[in-house]
Amino acid sequence: MRRSGWLSLVFGALVGTLVIVLLATTVTAPSNASRSDCVRLVTSSSTEKGDLIAELAARYNETGRTFDGGKCAKVDPHKKTSGATLDLIADGWNDIDQHQPEPQVWMPSSSLWLDLLRQRGKGERIKAGPKTSLATSPMVIAMPEPMAKAMGWPEKTLGWNDVLQVNRDGGWASKGAEYAKWGNFTLGKDNPRRSTSGLAATIATYFAATGGDYGKIGTAETVQFVRGIEASVAYYSDDSVAFLKTLYDEDRKKPTPYISAMAMQEQMVYLYNRGVPTGDPAQLNANPVAPLRPLVAVHPKEGTMLIDHPFLTTASASPEQQAAADDFYAFLREEGQQKRFRDLGFRDPDGRPGPDLAGIVGTQGTQEPPKIGVPTGEQIQKMLDGWEYTQRRGRILLVLDLSGSMNEPFDKNRKDKPYSESRIALLKPAIRKQLEYLHPEDEVGLWTFSDGYEEKMPIGKVKNVRGPMLQLVENLTPRGDTALYQTVMAANDKMRREFDPNLINAVVFLTDGENTEAGTKEQVLQNVDADRLDNSVRIFTMAYGAQADSRVLDEIAQKSKARSYQAVDPYGIDKMFVNVFSNF
């Protein structure tokens, strides 16, 4: 063989070996998830896109991406309602009840929350920078399709004035005798202090009331209009994702729609109609079942707000975490990830919808109204302050378990405080704090139960009964067994007998155990079954500690068209009460 030919073979072999080595290196390069030297980037997302962000974070962590000359990041995703996260950021982040670490990236549903943070004088806790958006979604009035048609949709463009007029005209019967069975027009709405959907709906009603002139927020005409809308609210949810799950479950059980309308993002209507009310993207691949009565996304004719889903970096982020956040944002804006947002019903950052969005949410062929002007942080705060006096007030019966187990330690297996303290001792300050938060015009009463039940304080205006009730709570002494079933039915019967259609009528029921007295679960569920939304009593249940019968409490709450809550450790007690009373 010639020397040149031999050299060619050697050179070719070396090149081939090098190519194989490079390919092997490319294929076997470790993902960020498997590396121990990556920058940890904690994110907190709003709940409606929390599962999607978790999916995309996992995708990012598997890419092996690097930035700043070879550094890598590992994203640790969490989710929480935008309003709750605002409070935590403003207060210096104290979330030990859920053990969620302080985030370096906040992805609320709307920049409105950043405006409110600045209004509180805490805007410096978010790094300044250019406006960002991951996706958008308009705020809509979501109505079961039969009800939307009864109001003239799709030929008629509906709005907040139409919502207001139905009850002023005598309820659904005003639309025809065949609709009288639906009772009053009932609106589902999130608490605007905790949820973007609730906040955007409150702004939209003020916009409709003032004709877009936010300088008229405090006028008598505006207050009257907003109060009329709020009077239709069945109760205030703390999270519309959880509300939609209940709506979906009820859809196949009864011929009457669970609610007349719900203020929410268009994207959530899309997922609901696809059969995925929880927003979990994995369910789209599991042959979800569409509801019998799909929702129609009504864009209010007075104008609608475009929710902008910003990507914000907190001031607590280190320079490395800031760089990691920039890289994660760039990743989320790439086409592959943007397609996933569109797959779940979001519009792109400029407000453009995907090809099948309009057909699924019922806006095909209808004209979109203009987007409303975004108020300033000061104006938003004025609306929230005004909402405190226009919202539908609550008539609440607080029912507390005083069985002997309430004297036991919260956790018998731990000796450290607060776990070693008695359940009743830990409960009293949480109750006192919540009674202080109730609005003076709300109504509240107190029952306790053990072997039987006892009225401790008749229902009265908070401003009149708060002081005496605080003293009663301080002197509560547990003893006896747990007449859970008897007490639930008696409380429900009392509230139904004294039902006030102008208020949110509810029982807030707390127990740390299981029923030990007469009665069956079937009797209770039949007793609390909410046959009609406008004359039923909501029973919000609280499972206090690990020994509480949370399964039964869930069923009771669901049957009465309310929600159940749980505190599995002492740090979750305050949060449980805040979430429950956010419904009023």
Automatic annotation (TrEMBL):
<dbReference type="Pfam" id="PF13519">
    <property type="entry name" value="VWA_2"/>
</dbReference>
<dbReference type="InterPro" id="IPR002035">
    <property type="entry name" value="VWF_A"/>
</dbReference>
<protein>
    <submittedName>
        <fullName>Uncharacterized protein containing a von Willebrand factor type A (VWA) domain</fullName>
    </submittedName>
</protein>
<dbReference type="InterPro" id="IPR036465">
    <property type="entry name" value="vWFA_dom_sf"/>
</dbReference>
<feature type="domain" description="VWFA">
    <location>
        <begin position="395"/>
        <end position="580"/>
    </location>
</feature>
<dbReference type="Pfam" id="PF13531">
    <property type="entry name" value="SBP_bac_11"/>
</dbReference>
